[in-house]
Amino acid sequence: MNWITKNNANFYKDGAAGVDWYNKQVLKRRELYPNWQDLCTAESDEIAKQVTNKGYCIIKNFWDLSLLDEIRKETLGIIGSSTPEIVRNVQGGRHTQIYMPTKNVPLINSLVLEPKIASIATSFLNCMPGLGTTNLRLSKVHNLGPSGTNMYHRDFNSIKFIKFFTYFNDVSEDNGPFTYVESSNTKLPSNWLQRHRWSDKEIKAIYGENSIKHLTANYGDLIVGSTNGFHKGEMLKKGQRLMLTLNYTTHAELGDPGIYGPPSSRHQILKETYENIKDDKKALYDFIEVV
Question: What is the average pLDDT across 231-259?
């Protein structure tokens, strides 16, 4: 197998131009927030190192369950209302999604502002992070074949960004764990640009079965990942899975055209929610639209 590693610009979708553009965004964040290193801790540095090396990390018993209970109850209530402006069926009905969670489920912002998450994101990105996009979705068993996020792929939202996964129920191998290909964040087959979605068979042939990690976790755990590596969400065999993802970046997230096109639509937060955030935390919302 011919491999491309991270020190080769061809590892990235936009090549050398993308790497140069990204590095300039990091410098801008450092200049704007020169005290960014104050957010880093020995613990966050160690977690960031693990994510950099392996592509992921699972932190047990991270969340206050009473807070998660509140968010879970509110989210399921909204989904039950089926309000079309907020509740959407996506990927051909494979998932039910809350549109713009930071706006429509304001309690989500309590998770966004968790100091330990900001510390991990800072250690990983080496500058003040900002929230990019979020995803809050309910997945159930269906008879549809694998498609979209149920197939292996890489995210191109940025040259480098970090994603936090919170399950609102225990997740085993039966109810759709986030699945990661260990080391795919550091090496890629030379033909990786051939397609965006890859089958299980293809990925096993390239990386070997031992590299495929099903990241099961309990209610209250936190999964941290670098989704520039190959990953997917497993299809559910039984039960359901309610999951939140939070992306932290160094710039407004990019759409499919990458640096050569406009950024993705910015996610939103209500003005009254934003105004109640402490001034020293508002930098985390630099890439979010206040409405």
Answer: 93
